[in-house]
Every structure is written in C-alpha cells, then in structure tokens.
C-alpha cells in the first residue's frame, strides 16, 4: 500500500518576490509547480516584506516576517517543510513541532579566501550539522554538493520557460549590444565589464550594455561609468518584471556574466540562452555546469581576457557561432517541469519517512 502523498507544503525562503535573485525566483517556480502540477497547498514563508497588495496576484499564500505564533502555526499546518536554501532562523519551530523537511542548498556557507572569526565558525559548524539532519538534502550543482558534503541529491536549477523565449530573430542581432542580468553587487564583476566596455569603445566599437537589476553597488557603478566616459553606453534598468527582462535579452546578441564571486549555478545563463543570446561568463563555481559546454568561459576578474572575448564575439563570425552553438539544447534540458518534478519526488520521499520512520536514514543518504 502506497503512503498518502503530501498535500500541504511550507516553503521557507530568506527573501522572496518582488526581489528577483535566483533563490527568490526558484521559490516562486517551485510554489507554482507544487501547486499546479502536483495539487499541493503551498504556503511560502519569508523574512522580507513586500508592497501592499503585491501578494494578492500570487496563486498561493505568502506569510511575511512571521511572528513566533504564526511561524509555529505554519510548521504545524505543513506535511513537509521545504527550505529553498537553508533558513535556520526558522528552524526552532521545527524543533517544537517536528515535520519531515527537505533542504536544497543554493549558496555557499563559506566564501573562499574570506577569513572567519571563531564565533562565526562555530555558528557555521552548528548550521552545517543541522542542515545534514534534513530528511532529504539536495544541492543545485555538483560544485555545491561537494561544498556541503553529506551526499546530497543534485538537482539543477531550471529557468522559467514560460517567461524566457525567443521573440526577436536570433540572426542579425547587433553584436555590439550586451546584457547583464543580476544583482548590482561587488561579487558580480560589473566593474570589470565596464572597464572592458571602455577599452572596446576606445577601439571604435559602439558597444552598449543593458544592466538589468539593482543592488548596493549601483551608485559606485554609475560613478565608474562616468569616470570611464561610457555613461551613454551603459543603461541601468533596475529591477523589472521577467517579461521585460526577456524583451531586453531579445534585443541583445550576448549576455555577459562577469562574476568574481562564487556562483553556485547561474540560472541567468539559461534564461539568456532561451532568449536567443550567446553567453560569455566567468569560469567560476557552478557556471560551467550550468552552461554544459556551451557559451564562452572567461577567467574571472581578468579585464584583458574579457576584452579579447568580447572583441572576438563582435568581430569574428566563427567565434560568435561557436558561442551560440548548443544554446537552445542546453536551455531545453533545464525546463521548469524537470526541476519541479524532481523536487516533488524529494518532497514525497521526505513525507514517506514520516509515515515509515525506518526509511528516514535511507532518505537522508539519497
């Protein structure tokens, strides 16, 4: 006799829409998929607030900045708790009201090269021990799996295929038009990109960059663009809806991801490929895994290398064709349903552990 499938899932996520980072977006994708494809009743629980009435347009419930009582009620009402990246600030409620739980890790706990104080190291060790106690542990890339240990299940991110697709002819796009999508933060390497753009413009190339996203570094990046004399070539769009991001990507020939910090996957490269862009991205973290042998990988933080790569993509037909090859096949391999269904299998597995506790140890290993 098969155990009853889970019907109520609480998704824990540190920050959520309207922010548009990878963790926030995948939480939305999973909430919709668990509900629409698998009939679950979904409650998203998050620490960040949103404008009034924002959540009214979402097809599932959202609990923001919950009180202790609200958080405990959310856990009590769930068949399974799903951490979209470990949110240990909410873990106390699971101690008071135990539920089977799935953790998928999407961000590193330790940044290579950064020194950690002794108190912080202790906190991280406790967090790691708690994470490994999850009923089912997963990671969004092999790189992330190696980082956290514990033999997690690897489930690659998907992209929102109902949002990102080709609307403008791929052939004939202006190769001088580049796009970046993501947070405007120091670890994204946008300063390196601006330096490369300035040098290419100095060679007479009318390069234009659409920077799509917002972040703490925006004032510094605007100042840097002005200092380099490329203000007219750099357009800051801020956070915009996914449909508008797709429009901007469809105007670009190349999407650039010049990250200098450790990316655990890089979903944006899939979105760009689905929208018809060739991709040039830093050879760091899980980005090569996301590209799957397509696109062009560039040494992180190397302005000279970025200038060479972008110059070749603009001027060399063969180089551009190589960067473009396989982009649609790679995007197709990461459609939404594949990720949603695989994570649902893990939710079902965790729920089965609660009904047949002897299988929990096995579930943690898978």
UniProtKB/TrEMBL annotation:
Organism: Micrococcus lylae
Signal peptide range: none
Name of this protein: Glycosyl transferase, group 1 family protein
Gene Ontology BP terms: carbohydrate derivative biosynthetic process
SUPFAM superfamilies named among the record's database cross-references: UDP-Glycosyltransferase/glycogen phosphorylase
Domain of life assignment: Bacteria
UniProtKB keywords: Glycosyltransferase, Transferase
GO molecular function, one term: glycosyltransferase activity
Gene3D superfamilies listed in its UniProt record: Glycogen Phosphorylase B
Domain Glycosyltransferase subfamily 4-like N-terminal: 21-149
Taxonomic lineage of the native organism: Bacteria, Bacillati, Actinomycetota, Actinomycetes, Micrococcales
